[in-house]
Design goal:
The complex is a heterodimer. By secondary structure, chain A is an alpha/beta fold. Chain A has helices spanning about 5-10, 15-25, 35-45, 110-130, 155-160, 210-220, 280-295, 330-345, 365-370, 390-410; strands at about 50-60, 60-70, 80-85, 100-105, 105-110, 140-145, 165-170, 180, 180, 185-195, 240-250, 265-275, 300-305, 325, 350, 375, 390. Chain A is elongated. The chains are: A alpha/beta, B alpha/beta. Chains A and B meet through α6, β11 and β12 of A and β10, α5, β11 and β12 of B.
Chain lengths: ~400, ~425
């Protein structure tokens, strides 16, 4: 059925999206602490007359927020999925301000770029479709999820609970480009074993300094050769970085007794898989690099701990491997999104790879692994602190998401 | 045998050691152990017993057997905090027991066996009815593993004793010298970039740079004139590492290159070295990295910087000890040791014990003649003391206390033979 464009667009007031974005960004919601932000979103969804609003407890005190505009069941279910948790602030960010501001045509505030502006945009897109007055054939499901930065535990949970849509847009930062392809993400731990002795004895007792061994592992990991087929649009894949390290005494990492030779050190790595790479081949390649160290050093002892291990204290990193997404660029979802973008802007968005966004993992990977056809199309760009969104882009993404959703559910 | 030595009953000593060792007392959690020690000293008839809060909830337990002031005072100083339990320790925790000819339990070796010995040595004096001229002060201190915060607090707030014995594990050798201990932090700064932007933005991985620093520190040869008795000093190693995002070391987002990584470094100085010299060497080796790598940026924090979360390492530089071998406290102790055991004790350095710091360094740096003489020896877990050494050690401590505290200044000829000149200030300026 042809979408009545003006009926939908007439229901969009950008001030509402801006206000909602600010309301969400005012509330700190680093991973693990999303509850207050989720409750705010719940309140807002109720105020916007979603047909169903419920909280879905993923972990105690950590709910997803699900809002549904009900269809009559004769059309596909369309999900708009955005995460509520926000990135950590690096050392040079300075003291965070929790009152978002409008500046130079942008909304600026902690977490605005990834992805509270997008969260607001998708909510208002769903509301606009509903307000247009047409009977929905399929449901529009708005999912404000927790723990995306922890591997997408919120989205994985809702999929496991049976909330599997047919189609989805995950409005991660793409600067309003149609991103149909993105990396897989593996966050893993490499444990290095040493053997302790007191410093006063280290020339007498057999000992192995786990931090010295870890330095060898860091070198080997940085040089690992991953088997893959290069993707011309993704020269940065595969990638690996060492993101953290902790070493001291015992697997509890006692760092308060440096007089002892450390006997346990863990390196935290982040690996980005190129399309076509598998978790299995990636882990084999990591092992090969570390085994090469062990071959020359009998004292080099390691083990690789895969998700959910990095999700344990003190890491609180990823609890899941995030699969890649690779939707065909000619899929009707991608084409619909592209067409509406062109119609509203007169310009053609990128469709397919979007740099650097395609180097990210996203909940779209989990959705794809459940057979959901999905892509990323969101208003923010990639900035260093992910704390801003262009207001014009926010307006655009709300319209494009609303019209695209309408095309599938009306 | 001295009068006091006859009043030492081994079963009582072992019972006290086991009771004390069954109270967990890692650094920061010594309160219950201190209260227990105080209660027991009161029950044993000490003239004065008090708890002295070093930090809220962390008291030293001090027991005093008072003299009339006509003679020199002696301090026995033993710490209540115990070493962390490393991997591979498979014995039951906090259930000490006599196994064969040893007392075995967490912390018994360093140094609850010795704590029991010094407390019971004091009790023996009381039971023997020794006429006390100088005070015997039995100090059960907290936080020795944190740089001796208990002893520093004690010495800052109370009169200094005239002499002291710190019965750290020496296997009943008279250990007259030990290392100075400097624990410091080397923090390496990077620049965080998200992994997906590595092809576009330049990042600096603080973990990688810290590994350069770790390797350099591990191979650093500290400048020094060799000490004739302590060829194993100086030494330095990297003891812990923590790196992630921001000064709080966030580990939950490894997709961002780490921008802060800290190494905890432990340095052992021989008694004639200075902290200034160590710092020159350390800066030299790190500056050499920086000279070839403009992205390498570091800073060094000296104590008390390691004494904060998550480090909670040393709050103080622990000065070294080198008591002149002709000090009369040494000969007196050796004489009692020989009289009670039939054999002369070893005197001087002890390997590896002389590679340790101890509260004796704090006492010595304030001019208190002291040494280490304790019943345990170094082992991987510091969890045992031989019964025979415990018995002998307690008797020798009691005998020495009786001889020092039971005589007047003149009788012992304290002023002409026992006093030390104040040692050179070895800490120097840190920067």
């Amino acid at each position: 059925m042809a979408v009545d464009e003006s009926a939908i667009l007439g229901q969009i007031d950008d001030a509402e999206a801006i206000a909602l974005c600010k309301a969400l960004a005012r509330i700190p919601s680093f991973p693990g602490d999303e509850r207050a932000c989720a409750l705010e979103l719940e309140k807002q969804l109720r105020a916007l007359d979603f047909d169903e609003v419920h909280l879905q407890e993923v972990e105690p005190g950590r709910p997803n927020v699900i809002g549904i505009m009900k269809g009559d069941g004769s059309g596909p279910t369309f999900m708009l999925n955005g995460h509520l948790d926000t990135d950590p602030l690096p050392a040079d960010y300075g003291e965070p301000h929790w009152e978002p501001v409008e500046r130079d045509g942008k909304i600026v505030g902690v977490g605005v770029g990834n992805m509270k502006a997008a969260d607001a945009s998708m909510v208002m897109a769903a509301a606009a479709v509903k307000r247009s007055g047409k009977t929905l054939r399929g449901d529009i499901v708005v999912a404000g999820v927790i723990g995306e930065l922890q591997g997408g535990i919120g989205t994985r949970y809702l999929l496991e609970q049976g909330l599997v849509p047919d189609i989805a847009i995950v409005p991660e930062p793409t600067a309003c480009n149609v991103r149909t392809i993105h990396a897989g993400v593996l966050e893993a731990l490499v444990h290095i074993h040493g053997k302790t002795a007191w410093i006063g004895n280290f020339d007498i007792l057999d000992n192995v300094n786990a931090i010295v061994q870890a330095a060898k592992a860091v070198d080997a990991l940085n040089a690992v050769q991953f088997r893959h087929t290069p993707h011309p649009g993704l020269p940065g894949l595969p990638a690996i970085v060492v993101g953290g390290i902790i070493g001291g005494l015992t697997p509890e990492y006692m760092v308060w007794r440096p007089a002892m030779v450390p006997d346990f050190c863990t390196i935290e790595i982040d690996v980005r898989l190129a399309p076509g790479m598998t978790l299995e081949s990636t882990v084999e390649d990591l092992k090969a690099a570390l085994d090469a160290v062990a071959a020359t050093d009998p004292d080099f002892k390691y083990e690789i701990a895969l998700p959910p291990a990095p999700y344990a204290a003190p890491f609180h990193a990823m609890g899941l491997f995030m699969p890649p997404n690779d939707l065909a660029a000619d899929h009707p979802l991608a084409q619909s999104c592209k067409r509406w973008h062109e119609r509203l802007t007169g310009k053609t968005p990128q469709v397919g790879v979007f740099i650097p966004g395609s180097y990210a993992g996203a909940d779209s990977g989990h959705l794809a692994s459940y057979g959901v056809k999905c892509l990323n199309y969101g208003p923010s760009g990639h900035s260093r602190f992910y704390d801003e969104c262009d207001i014009d882009m926010l307006a655009l993404s709300t319209r494009v998401m609303a019209l695209t959703a309408a095309e599938f559910v009306l | 045998m001295s009068a006091a030595a006859k009043h030492v009953v081994l079963d009582e000593v072992t019972s006290l050691v086991c009771d004390l060792a069954d109270i967990p007392s890692f650094s920061g959690e010594e309160r219950a152990a201190a209260e227990f020690a105080a209660t027991r000293m009161k029950a044993l008839g000490y003239d004065e017993v008090f708890l002295q809060d070093v930090e809220p909830g962390r008291p030293n337990a001090i027991g005093i057997i008072r003299g009339d002031g006509a003679g020199p005072s002696l301090m026995f100083n033993g710490h209540l905090d115990v070493d962390p339990i490393p991997m591979g320790y498979d014995r039951p925790l906090w259930q000490s027991a006599i196994e064969g000819d040893e007392v075995v339990g967490v912390g018994v070796g360093n140094m609850k066996g010795a704590d029991g010995a010094m407390i019971m040595a004091g009790a023996a004096l009381k039971r023997a009815g020794v006429r006390m001229r100088g005070d015997l002060i039995v100090a059960c201190v907290i936080g020795e593993l944190q740089g001796g915060i208990g002893t520093v607090h004690l010495l800052d707030n109370n009169p200094l004793p005239d002499v002291a014995i710190v019965p750290e594990p020496t296997n009943l050798q008279i250990r007259t010298m030990h290392a100075g201990v400097l624990e410091l932090l080397v923090t390496v700064r990077g620049k965080s970039v998200w992994i997906g932007q590595l092809t576009q933005r330049k990042g600096v991985n603080a973990v990688e740079k810290a590994m350069l620093a770790a390797r350099a520190i591990q191979s650093l040869r500290l400048t020094h004139e060799p000490h004739p008795s302590l060829p194993g000093l100086p030494r330095i190693h990297v003891g812990a590492v923590l790196g992630g995002l921001t000064d709080d070391y966030h580990l939950w987002r490894p997709a961002f290159i780490a921008d802060c990584c800290t190494l905890a470094v432990d340095v052992r100085l021989h008694p004639r070295m200075t902290v200034d010299g160590v710092m020159r060497d350390l800066r030299g080796c790190l500056d050499a990295i920086a000279a070839s790598d403009p992205d390498f940026q570091y800073e060094i924090e000296l104590p008390p910087a390691p004494y904060r979360k998550p480090w909670s390492a040393m709050a103080h530089y622990m000065p070294p000890l080198e008591l002149p071998l002709d000090h009369p406290l040494i000969a007196m102790t050796a004489r009692h040791h020989k009289a009670l055991s039939g054999a002369a004790p070893q005197i001087g350095m002890h390997i590896p014990g002389s590679h340790a710091g101890a509260d004796s360094g704090h006492l010595f740096s304030r001019g208190v003649p002291c040494f280490n003489y304790g019943p345990s020896q170094h082992s991987r877990f510091y969890n045992k003391v031989p019964l025979a050494k415990l018995d002998l050690g307690t008797r020798v401590l009691a005998s020495v206390a009786e001889e020092i505290c039971g005589q007047t200044w003149d009788e012992i000829d304290f002023d002409s033979k026992w006093r030390l000149g104040a040692p050179e200030p070895l800490l120097g300026k840190a920067h």
